[in-house]
Design brief:
This protein is α/β, with parallel strands linked by helices and 200 residues long. It contains 6 helices and 7 strands; from the N terminus they run αβββααβαβαββα.
């Protein structure tokens, strides 16, 4: 008598639970954020990033001097009734080296002196010896330099990354911000016109 095995049980169909639309929410948010960042990245001139301080007074700061032959820098120095060009730089910043000849040319321009405009600098998160060596080798265009070793003043200015250049009106109001190295075209087409506009 042959034994017969019982028929195999038919596989039971299990219904997949439906995913809630909320399960896709994180993915949709991620895609939206990436899309927004890409749109901002490729829209407009990246050197003219928005600043919350435009048309507002410079933040309060008081930085020690880098050199014994030149004063330090404070917000009071930017409220002396004349336009100031403030450049935030560092010796470790490659683009800062690129723009330095333009800053030297700006500082030596007789129109700048005639109009009472000063070029000042903030050494951002840099070792003072490195900053002094850099300026000694490549030229020092600044009438005054403040040392922002901790980067706190840079944060208060909303620095995205050095170099950054601000044009400040005589009452301490920030009139213009330029992010990135200044070349000859920028000096001619952006910086000088903004200096002139800030004087009015």
């Amino acid at each position: 008598m042959s034994e017969t095995s019982p028929p195999a049980a038919a596989p039971q169909e299990t219904a997949r639970p439906r995913r809630s639309p909320l399960a896709y929410l994180p993915l949709l948010i991620f895609i939206g954020v990436v899309g927004l960042l890409l749109a901002r990245l490729f829209a407009g001139d990246p050197s003219r990033l928005p600043s919350a301080l435009l048309d507002k007074s410079v933040p309060k700061f008081d930085l020690p001097a880098l050199l014994t032959t030149a004063p330090g820098l404070s917000d009071k120095d930017l409220r002396q009734g004349h336009v100031t060009v403030l450049n935030i730089f560092a010796s470790w910043c490659g683009p800062c080296h690129e723009e330095n000849p333009q800053l030297v040319a700006l500082a030596q321009d007789k129109r700048l002196a005639a109009e009472g405009v000063k070029l000042v600098g903030i050494a951002y998160k840099d070792l003072p010896d490195d900053t002094r060596r850099y300026l000694g080798q490549e030229g020092n265009p600044y009438a005054a330099i403040g040392v922002d070793a901790s980067g706190r003043t840079g944060i208060d200015f909303g620095v995205y990354g050095v170099p950054e250049t601000y044009i400040v009106k005589g009452d301490g109001t920030i009139a213009f911000k330029f992010v990135g190295p200044i070349d000859e075209d920028t000096l001619r087409d952006a910086i000088w016109p903004q200096i002139e506009a800030a004087r009015k």
